[in-house]
Amino acid sequence: MIKPKRPVSRVLVAVCLVGFSGGVGAQTFSEMLTEWDPAWPQRAGLTVVGYSQQQNYALDNFTIDLPLEVDPTLLLSEIENEVSQWGAKADFWILPFLNVHAMAGVVDGQTGVALTPAAVELIGADQITVNYDGSVYAGGTTLAYGQDWWFLSVTGIYAYTDVKGEIESIPSWMIMPKFGVRREAVEVWCGATYQRVAERQSGVFDLDGLLLNYDLELEAKEGWNTQLGFRYRFSDNVLLTLEAGFGNRESLTGHLEWRF
Fold first, then answer.
1. Quick one: average pLDDT of 92-117?
2. What percent of the chain stands above pLDDT 90?
3. DSSP code of 77?
4. H helical segments located in 77-184
5. How far apart are CA 159 and CA 140, in angstroms?
6. How confident is the model at residue 26 (pLDDT cuts 50, 70, 90)?
7. Who wins on pLDDT, 179 or 31?
8. 66, burial (CB in 10 Å: exposed 0-12, middle 13-18, buried 19+)
9. pLDDT at 195
10. Would the CA dihedral through 26, 30, 33, 36 be positive or negative?
């Protein structure tokens, strides 16, 4: 029987998708702050965010109190993580090319660590599975520029997940460059996401009364993945965004946004 304790997951799930139309021109910073051009995006926004993600982890560190000498890394096989999140985000354009945002939400996930046949024979279990849930908070900024039919953006996000229980919050971050095009109410883009994700598990294997303490540290197997996105503008105030991630990390994001 496995009794996991202290699961910690750094999940980065806030995504800022922006399109910018109209040049800045020769305005000063003061004029940009006070004279908002109607051709620019509505300055403030509130967004409902849904996010799901699945990816493989790589082993960073593993220790276990075995009664015999063996490399503990030989006991582990494939490591998979799944996570989903719901949240709300508020954002504001400080300047025509500079957006800031903050987000809060709830998260739940599962990490499964498969064991090798030798480990199954030794420990009597075929997998370490940890389910967790908690709250996630994030803040970030976006730099963006574009013309009538195209736009560029780079978003950086700092976040942490607070898992229920006596667990310290762990910071994490992501970077997302994007290039997109627009036609009337539709925007599409491609890009990439670098995500710094790590997870730590500690617990006890109970082998018929023999208790073996273990400590497991995991990280994302690959930091980068590809993103494709779509955005439909129902009006200047209401927008729907869908974005999918491909590669070692698969993700799906949905935004329903109200701008004012």
1. 91
2. 45
3. E
4. 117-123
5. 8
6. low
7. 179
8. middle
9. 92
10. negative
207/119 Cα distance (integer angstroms): 12
pLDDT at residue 72 in the model: 65
Q: Which residues contact 69 (CB under 8 A, 6 or more apart)?
A: none
The H or E element containing residue 31 is helix 29-34
Indicate the DSSP class of residue 208.
T
For residue 235, CA distances in Å to 19, 37, 123 come to 14, 17, 59
pLDDT at 75 over 80: no
Cα distance between residue 242 and residue 256, in whole Å: 9
How much is the pLDDT for 139?
96
- Calpha distance 110→80 (Å, rounded): 8
Rounded distance, CA 123 to CA 105, Å?
A: 37
| Average pLDDT taken over every residue of the chain | 82
Q: How far is CA 250 from CA 110, 172, 234, in A?
A: 15, 19, 28
Q: Backbone phi, then psi, for 161, in 5-degree steps?
A: -110, 130
Running DSSP on this structure, what letter comes out for residue 29?
H
Q: Name the residue among 114, 105, 176, 183 with its Cα closest to residue 141.
A: 176
State how far the Cα of 76 lies from the Cα of 128, in Å rounded to an integer. Answer: 10
pLDDT at 44 over 90: yes
Q: Tell me how long the chain is.
A: 260
In the numeric block, which tokens belong to residue 240?
A: 């729907």
Q: Using DSSP, state whether 34 is helix, strand or coil.
A: helix
CA distance 49 to 77: 34
User: What is the structure's pLDDT at 135?
Assistant: 94
